[in-house]
Specification:
This protein is mostly helical. The chain has a single domain, classed as Up-down Bundle (Growth Hormone, Chain: A), CATH 1.20.1250. 81% of the residues lie in helices and 0% in strands. It is built from 23 helices and no strands. α8 crosses α13, α10 packs antiparallel against α23 and α14 packs antiparallel against α20. The radius of gyration is 22 Å and the shape is globular.
Length: 453
């Protein structure tokens, strides 16, 4: 007998589980290749460049991806983007297994996978709006974040365990199996396409015009632009620290992959606890408090503590709190956008939103590695130029300079979150923006007028 495919919140729960399995495999591969890159180069810059090429294309190509997400089946987009990530792993596996893997291959594979990853954020975010009821937006977002956090707990420990038995090649084979599972889940679940709205019809003015629609929509609304400006700043600050995280731990522990894996697992535990809290609680009634207070808390209790730490225990505590607040921040922010922006233009708008918020991330990645290798690390060796001021804060020696970078990141993150309350367009965003199903937002009306001129 034919049975209806899973849909709604239940269907999205299944999708989230598929992503958990896929992210578990990806996390294991990332851990193994990070350790390989550190052993080969011993430089924070090399790890930073891997991160850069694995991220920058996803941001830069977002406007184009947003148009495609709104034009074609979102399920198809999700499947293709997952498939591309798997193919990049296959390529690295072949190169490593034949003894030809070089560091630049990681840059190329990361660039390829990230180019298709640009489709994932707008596709998955927009799918929530068509799959679940508005009152469950925050929970669905937290659920998706929970998949990443839970995999973050298991992946480092699993990678450390399988490293001895399967090696890097075996870990990547496991990764390939997991992305096949995720694609199978997407094929199984029903993901509806959005109903066309007036805003959606107004946005269809040619491919290149559509690619700029999301930017015009956001720029035309001070509250939306203000929210993304806050994320622009916080992403730069956080990335400045986290780009050198693995190098800092490895430098301070003599390349101890067990300690690195344990601290990474603490990140995952924090994310899972925060995600479970957000999934059951649903977040604060005033979503903007979840965003801004969450940023300040993550900065002071997370990033700064990681930088100050010189032991597994302190690093783990900082890692826990750094990730504990992320589901609250992201879930609250996503709920605001999903309630305010019509679903059939969310692909374009969310893609532009990602570009605005995260264009600062690759910039931070490019400068963090060289600053660590040539400024902060030399400055924090015994007798270095920075030890007189900060030596008692993070200690001295290998990794101390990168720890200081984390401390700065934490302080600046707290200033960003609390400072945003000074701007009425941000702190009152939920009052200034009507829900898409209740009224026509001013930005939509302005965009419609511009398109008709």
């Amino acid at each position: 007998m034919f049975r209806k495919r899973p849909e709604g919140l239940f269907g999205f729960t299944i999708v989230s589980f598929g992503q958990f399995v896929s992210l578990l495999g990806s996390g294991m591969t990332r851990f193994a290749l990070t350790y390989w890159a550190w052993e080969v180069t011993g430089e924070a810059t090399a790890l930073a460049l891997v991160a850069f090429f694995s991220f920058a294309p996803a941001v830069l190509l977002s406007p184009i991806a947003g148009v495609i997400v709104d034009r074609v089946s979102r399920k198809l987009v999700m499947i293709v983007s997952d498939l591309a990530a798997g193919l990049s792993t296959v390529a690295i596996l072949i190169l490593h297994a034949t003894g030809h893997l070089e560091i630049w291959h990681l840059y190329a594979a990361g660039f390829f996978a990230a180019s298709f990853e640009s489709f994932q954020f707008p596709a998955y975010s927009a799918a929530i709006s068509t799959m679940v009821d508005k009152r469950h937006y925050a929970r669905a977002n937290a659920m998706l974040g929970l998949a990443g956090s839970a995999s973050g707990i298991i992946a480092p420990m699993a990678a450390g365990f399988f490293f001895a038995f399967l090696g890097i090649d075996g870990i990547m084979i496991v990764d390939i199996v997991t992305f096949c599972f995720a694609i199978g889940v997407l094929l199984f679940v029903f993901i509806p396409d959005p109903v066309e709205t007036a805003a959606g019809r107004a946005s269809k003015r040619g491919f290149w015009s559509e690619s700029l629609f999301g930017l015009r929509y956001i720029v035309g609304n001070r509250s939306l632009l203000g929210l993304q400006s806050v994320f622009f700043t916080i992403n730069f600050v956080a990335t400045f620290g986290f780009t050198v995280f693995a190098a800092m731990i490895l430098a301070r522990t003599g390349s101890d992959k067990i300690v690195l894996g344990s601290v990474q697992a603490a990140f995952g535990i924090g994310g899972v606890v925060g995600g479970l809290l957000m999934s059951t609680w649903g977040g604060p009634k005033r979503r903007v408090h979840g965003v801004l207070l969450g940023m300040a808390s993550a900065g002071l209790l997370g990033y700064a503590v990681i930088g100050l730490g010189q032991s597994l225990l302190v690093w783990s505590i900082g890692a826990f709190f750094a990730m504990f607040f992320i589901p609250i921040i992201n879930g609250s922010n996503q709920a605001i956008w999903q309630a305010k922006v019509p679903p059939d233009i969310q692909g374009k708008v969310f893609a532009a939103r990602r570009m605005i918020a995260q264009i600062s991330t690759p910039i931070a990645m490019l400068i963090a590695g060289p600053l660590a290798d040539h400024v902060f690390e030399p400055g924090m060796v015994p007798g270095g130029a920075l030890t007189g001021i900060f030596g008692r804060v993070t200690g001295t020696g290998p990794g101390a300079g990168m720890g200081l970078m984390f401390v700065f990141a934490g302080i600046l993150a707290a200033c960003t979150g609390l400072g945003a309350y000074l701007f009425p367009s941000v702190r009152n965003a939920e009052d200034l923006l009507p829900d898409f199903d209740e009224a026509t937002p001013p930005a939509e009306e302005a965009a419609r007028k511009r398109e008709n001129e």
